[in-house]
Structure formats: structure tokens, C-alpha cells
Amino acid sequence: MKLLRLPLYTKILIGLLAGVIFGILANRFGFSDFVFNYIKPIGSAFIRLISMVVVPLVFASLLVGTASLNDIRKLGRIGVKTVAYYLCTTAIAITIGLLLANAFRPGAGLSEQAQKRLIQNSSGAVGVQVETALEKPTLTDILLNIIPTNPVKAFVEGKMLQIIFFALLTGICLSLISSERSRPVINFFEGVNEVVIQMVHIIMKIAPYGVFALISAVITDFGLDILFILLKYSTVVIVGLVLHAVVIYSLAIKLLGKQKIATFFRGIRPAQLIAFSTGSSSATLPVTMECTEKNLGVPREICSFALPLGATVNMNGTALYQGVSAVFIAQVYGMGLTMGQQLAIVLTATLASIGTAGTPAAGVMTLAIVLRSIGVPLEGIAIILGVERILDMCRTVVNITGDASCAVIVASTERELQEPLANSIKD
Ligand code: ASP
After folding, report:
1. What does the domain layout of the chain look like in residue ranges?
2. I want to staple 317 with a disulfide (CB 3.0 to 4.6 A). Which of 132, 142, 295, 395 is the partner?
3. Atom of ligand 1 nearest to the CA of 365
4. 9-49: per-residue pLDDT in tens?
């Protein structure tokens, strides 16, 4: 009985630990098929459920938020603050990654044999995936692509930036027409918004089971051994991520957000656990929004602007990971990187992380862009694929934490940060 009354994040944590143990057992005692056939689908169902609400949630909440702002100058101010924070923290994240990778040199001094073994151990499909990543459009194309030629198509294909653009414009225009005309539309979308948020509440009830299923499938698939092979490299990435999350976000929350650091990290914890087990900022978005609004006291209109945008373009964890990975791969190949090349990493990893979709393993694809800019062999990506999944899970946690910290800071500088509610998402 007591177990049922535990806060949600504790239940999710229990699900996660139980998933690890179950995965190790399945891997050891050979009942992997059982996990893949019967347990994994529960995890997939959970991901599908939270992904299902992303498009309606982003559109309805952004539209209602913008329409209710009634002040285009305020929207502009929030927009500039959000983008500036995202760009600065991304650059800081990459710099931390580069400093650590240069200081600890995780890829240096490998024997040729070990190098060959690492490459052999990795998946052969990498070549194709890298080719696809390199077909990425230019910056102009990326910017032009924000404008949908057909909004319905953008919805169908889940093109986040296009949906955000269309929602913003619709919201702005609603605030420009007569309230007699705009009120029914806004009322309708307020209703939609409430319904979707209610859905998130219901879906979160099964989160502990979803997390259990997802984690046990990952551990069953890879086993723990593979995680040890690239221990040094993974440790540098993880230490960097922890440093960034603890030092940079704490400073930002304390100095700019004027919120208690403990309140922030406690409030965002449920979303972090979902980010860890799904490896997707986009899929986590409904939970991030719920936690940021209810547990951190950020008004809905700021959440619904900063968070969907952040889940799409702000990837601090991914940027840091790309910085470390680029230097690591160069070290494995015995290449020294000049100051100019390191600077190129900062620039390209910023762009690459912006272009990274908030989906699992997207960051390793866009890493190709960074490697190419500094002339490091793309095949190097194969070396790190073995630990990709676990690092993806960790960097996604940082990605969504960065989004939430931005929302808190924007709300605080707008003097709109409220006392957190009674932590409703936890119960
Ligand atoms: N999985 C990450 C995210 O959704 C993106 C990445 O692959 O780095 O935030």
C-alpha cells in the first residue's frame, strides 16, 4: 500500500533500477527473447503515448500563450532572452567538453591493435548513416525551412520548428483581431490544451512501467560488458555533462533565475528520469512542460514558448558530447588539433547541436558535420557507437535540464516566476 503512495519520481526511479537488474539477469541467463518480445513493447507503447501528445500540446499551448500575451514587444523580449541563453550555454557546454577532452586525453596512446578491435566491434551501418547526416542542408536552407509551405503537412510530419512558427504567427494574429472573433478560437484551444495536459497526467501514471521496460531492453541488448570498453571516453563525457548541469545551471538558476537550486533540481527530476530512459527531448517535452510549470513556478505562456523551442534547438548535452567526441576520435587517430580546429569545433558543434533533432541517437549523426569541418575521418564514429546509447540517455537529461533552466531564468527576469505549486507531478 505504501508503495502506491510514493511520489512519482521515486516510482520511476524504482522502475529504472528494477529494469537494470532485470536486464542484467536477462542478458546473463539468456531470456533476452522474452524481454524483446514481451517487455520492450511496453516501453515502446509508453514512448508512443508521450510522443502522441507532443504536436497538439505544443501547438495549443503556444497559440494560447502567445494570444494571451497581448504584447508583441514582450514576446520579442522573451524570444531574444531565450535564444541568447540557449546560444551562450551551448558554447559553454562545448568549451567544457573541449577542456576536459584535452586535459584527460581519453583517446591518446591506443595501440593499433586496440584501435582495429574497437572499429570491428562497431556496427557496419555507420557509413550509410553518416552519408545521410552529411546531406544536411546549408544554414540558409535550415532557416528557410522554419517557414512551412503547408502547415497541415508540418503537423502530419511533426516538423517542430514549422509548427512553432505557425503557432506563434497564429497567436500573434489572434491578438491583433477583434476579441469578438478571437475569443471563440482561443477558448477552443484552451480546451484542447487542458485535455492534452490531462492526458499527460494519465500517461505519467504508467511511466514507472514504461521506464522499467525501456531500461531492461537496453541492458539486455548491450549487456554491461560493452559499457566498459570505452570507459575512459564515456567517463569524460559524463563528467562533463555532470559539471555542466551542476555548475553552470546552478549558477544560472541562482544568479539569473533567483530560484533555490534544490527547488530547481528537485522539480525537474521526473522529467530527467523520462529523458534518461527515452533518450529523446521531444518525447519528454510534455513532462518537461508539466514539471517546469507546476514544480518550478514558470507561467504557462513562458513554458510553452521556451520549452518546445528548446527541445528542438537547445542541446547543451549533445554539444558537449560532440566536443569531447571530436577530440577523442582525433586522438584515437593520432591527430593533434590546432587552436583553429578547436575553435571550428565550437562553431560547428553549436550549429550541429541546433540542427540535431530531439530524438534518440540524432546527435551522433550530426557529429559527422563537426568531424568533417576539422578533417577527422568519419569512420571514427564507428568507434564510439558501442557506448552511444548510454551517452545519448545522459546527454538528453542535460538537454532538457537546460531548456527548463532557461524557462526559469526568462520567467524570473520578467518578474513572473511564481511559487511552485504543490508539486502535483510528483504525486
Ligand atoms: N537524444 C538527444 C535528445 O533528444 C539528441 C541527441 O542525440 O543528442 O535530446
Report:
1. 3-413
2. 395
3. 7
4. 788 889 888 988 998 899 888 888 999 899 999 988 988 88
